[in-house]
Amino acid sequence: MEKTASIEEVRAKVGNGKIFSGESNVNRAISKWHILSPLFIALPYSQDFKPVMLVDGFKKSAFKFNKKKSQFIIIYSIFATLVSLLLFTYTKNEKLLNLTLSGLIVTLYLTIDYITISNNLQSLTDRNVFISNLSHRYKKHAAKWFFICLAIGLIQVFINYLAGGFEEAAYRYGGIYKLIMAGEWWRIITASFFHSGLTHWFSNLAFALLSGPLFIALVRRTGLFVFISGCITGAISAYFLYFFGLTSADAYGGISAGIYALLGYITINSYKNKNIKTGNLHISIVNFLFMSTALSALLSHSISNTAHISGFITGVLLAFLCKHRDKYK
């Protein structure tokens, strides 16, 4: 596929910076394109690479290929759900029932995403332009949130070392509900600095590397205040579940509520800000919130959906209260 790029031919530049020339190679790149992967096209004798959905002659084919991929994924999800349903009907295995319900949730999510993005030419165009612009700044924005999460992880490692292990450190400084109830309210703040393990930390890191750069791109601020506010309200809401006897958990930890606060703020910002066309990003985030909440409620009782929802609501409220400085270009 790859050959020396010539300005006399149409060229495609993919997310990693590689350039392919020739109409056949460009069409091949378009057939592999996904909305989350930047793809830029330059016409013959032009040095101006534009997002593929802004280039006449390639816009319709990009729309068609993306639409077909989305349809295939939905069909595959429906098929997998039906297979698990048939197996459950035969075996009455509870895990297969959960798998079937998970399949229904994911299929609903994919269908809503298809209707609002992949099957809507203008929405797909707006989303493509937004992500293409974000891709130029993503590494810089992501680096900020990587170091924030790394600092949180290193603080826990240091505290674990001083205390002689995770369990002792969590008991001394973590979000232990019975100790909060005894009057140690400062644990509401320190709770988010503790993760149950590397998997928990890495999942939050991955989540932050998606939502953090989006926040910076839209609002032009890192979002630390929103993030910390979400962490605190998430810990408070989780504690009140314990206080009223609505959970069997005895402690709270992690920064996911703060990340959901960023998403809540982004949802309102992208909806209210008419200067930045994000391709129904607010719908995609709310759609994701419903899917993630439903899946975690179904598959993992250790995840605090109450904290996530509280964090999201915190972000929404702060978005209405704060004045936006929309300098994104």
Helix-strand layout with pairing:
Blueprint: E1 11-14, E2 19-21, H1 23-31, E3 39-42, E4 50-51, H2 59-91, H3 94-118, H4 121-135, H5 138-163, H6 166-173, E5 175-176, H7 177-181, H8 187-190, H9 198-219, H10 224-243, E6 251-252, H11 256-272, H12 281-299, H13 305-321
Antiparallel strand pairs: 1-2, 1-3, 3-4, 5-6
Helix pairs in contact: 2-3, 3-12, 5-6, 5-9, 9-11, 10-11, 10-13, 11-12, 11-13
Structural summary, described in words:
The chain has 329 residues and is mainly alpha-helical. The protein contains 13 helices and six strands. It has helices at residues 23-31, 59-91, 94-118, 121-135, 138-163, 166-173, 177-181, 187-190, 198-219, 224-243, 256-272, 281-299, 305-321, and strands spanning 11-14, 19-21, 39-42, 50-51, 175-176, 251-252. The protein has a four-stranded antiparallel sheet with strand order 2-1-3-4. The protein has a two-stranded antiparallel sheet with strand order 5-6. A hairpin with a 7-residue loop joins strand 3 and strand 4. Helix 2 packs antiparallel against helix 3 (94-118) and helix 5 crosses helix 6. The radius of gyration is 23 Å and the shape is globular. Mean pLDDT is 91; it is low at 325-329.
